[in-house]
Amino acid sequence: MSDLVKGANTFVPTVPLRIAVRGELRATALLLAADGRVRGDQDVVTDGAPAHPSGAVRLAGGADGTTWLEAGLGEAEADVERVLVVGSTRGGTVRETGVPSVEAYAPDGTSVARYEVAEVGDETALVLAELYRRAGGWKFRAVGQGYEGGLQALAADHGVEVIPVAGAAPVGVPFAPPVGAPAAAPIPTPIPAQAQAQVPAPTVAVPSTAAAPPQAQPAPQDWAFGPVFEPRTLTGRDNDVIQVDGLPPGPVVVELFVRGEGWTCLTPLNRRNKEGDVLVNSTEDDFQGRLLTTVPQGDPLRLRLQAEGRWQVTVLPLAAAHRLTGEWLEWRGPDVLLHTAGPADFAIRYKGDGNLIAHRYELEGHTDHATLPRRENFINKIGARRETHPLPEGPVIVELEMADGPWRARLRGVGQREDTPPEDGAASQTFAPFAVPGPEKTSTVRKSSRWGWRGRD
Question: What's the topology of domain 207-416+426-430?
């Protein structure tokens, strides 16, 4: 038996497993695709829907404070990357119900993985463990991630809206806002090419994946540079040439997630099929990042991706880039940020070991929306940093070209005293890989810090 501590993992045999959820908790399973979200309501296995159509997971009853799941991992569909094993209370908090634990057994009754949650509090739901694909097999990871907002908050983080059903456990119903935009911020309406010449400055609703407080949201008319279009998402595996047709010419944001280990490199291809300047060159496992490139006039956007593992590419309009405000942004990896206010200071706190490289593009007076102005490098350092740099009045694009590690960034007003970044869990805008924020919710969500554990292996 492998008795695990929080964050540890072990390979489990790809055989039918029986999984015990203990501690007087109700068991639920979520089957997740590569983007970290359910694909539909069939991917939520709970009391109201006790079996997955594929046969990969089903509820198998329970007694004496234990609920059982049966997981036939060999039956999981190819696009199912992870299975979350979730426990939720029937009333009260986890602290009040007992000591939660999860244990997986082989068909002969041998325990192959076990995890007991050592620290519990006022949570009413827990991700106890996850089963995930690795190197052609499956691994079991001890998670212990608690949610004071209960099953509703937990499910919403994975693309599910929980709707109470009278006389039954909550049933998950997925929602699917476009990747890169919250439900409350619609993607800008595309402007036909023939009409663009007649519109001096398109008025758009600006999307953003930032979970910003209402006062931090920009006015919808404050960004009109670059083409406007519906986001395009493509998925695949390993090395590939990616082509996105029908995009208007101009600068765009390319959001890339790679679920795998090793080297990730992305470069644009010109009409002669020759590679241009490298957009990303990273050795980070499970790479994530947002990159800045330009769609050529009269040609599709073509990208050469070199990676090992499943990947997802989303092409977004520049208007969908994350906004710099006085609130701390928190993420890891390269990114594209927009500054739309007056003169301000750009503060960044970087906890990576590699290069931190940042450029700015000043758009004042640059009227050709199909090209970018000359870029100016203002950060090129190695290792953890605490830096502040002046920015002119917007509109300005801030490109974090390299940032293989967690970072926080914000704007400070000119003359404003420096302050300390918020502690983990304090108010900040956060962006989650392979997940799109759900509708605004008032519940408190307790998550593992992005400044601590760095992912699965």
Answer: Jelly Rolls (2.60.120)
Specify the residue for token string 């502690």.
423
DSSP secondary-structure letter at 369? T
Count CA atoms within 13 Å of residue 279 on its CB side. 25
Residue with tokens 């927009």: 338
Beta bridge partners, 241, equal 304
Instruction: Pick the closest to residue 434 from 84, 33, 36, 80 (CA basis).
Output: 36
Q: What share of the chain is helix, strand, coil (3-state, %, to 5)?
A: 5, 45, 50
Beta bridge partners of 292: 253
Model confidence at 455, pLDDT cuts 50, 70, 90, reads very low
Domain spans in the chain, listed from the N-terminal domain onward: 3-174, 207-416+426-430
- In a 3-state reduction of DSSP, which class is residue 381? strand
Contact call for residues 311 and 235 (beta carbons, < 8 A)? yes
Please check whether residue 314 is in contact with residue 262, taking contact to mean a CB–CB distance below 8 angstroms. no
- Enumerate residues 6+ apart whose C-beta is below 8 A from 441: 149, 152, 153, 156
Contacts of 272 (CB under 8 A, 6+ apart): none
Residue 26 CA from chain centroid, whole number: 27
For 3-174, which CATH class?
A: mainly beta
What is the full DSSP assignment across 220-242? TTS---S-----EEEEEESSEEE
3-state SS class at 118: coil
Question: DSSP 3-state assignment of 422?
Answer: coil
The two structure tokens encoding residue 261: 């280990």
**Tokens standing for residue 432:** 């989650």
Q: CA quadruple 247, 250, 255, 260: dihedral positive or negative?
A: positive
Question: Nearest-CA neighbor of 252 among 309, 188, 195, 308?
Answer: 188
Query: CB within 8 A of 44, min separation 6: which ones?
Result: 28, 29, 30, 31, 38, 155, 160, 171, 172
321-360 pLDDT tens trace: 999 999 988 888 999 999 998 999 999 999 988 889 999 9
Give the pLDDT confidence of 87-116 residue by residue, as tens digits. Answer: 999 888 888 888 899 999 998 888 999 999
CB distance 100 to 23 below 8 Å: yes
Distance CA 387, CA 393 (A): 19
**Upstream peptide bond of 186 is cis (omega within 30 degrees of 0):** no
Phi, psi of 73 (to 5 degrees): -60, -30
Backbone angles phi, psi at 43, to 5 degrees: -85, 5
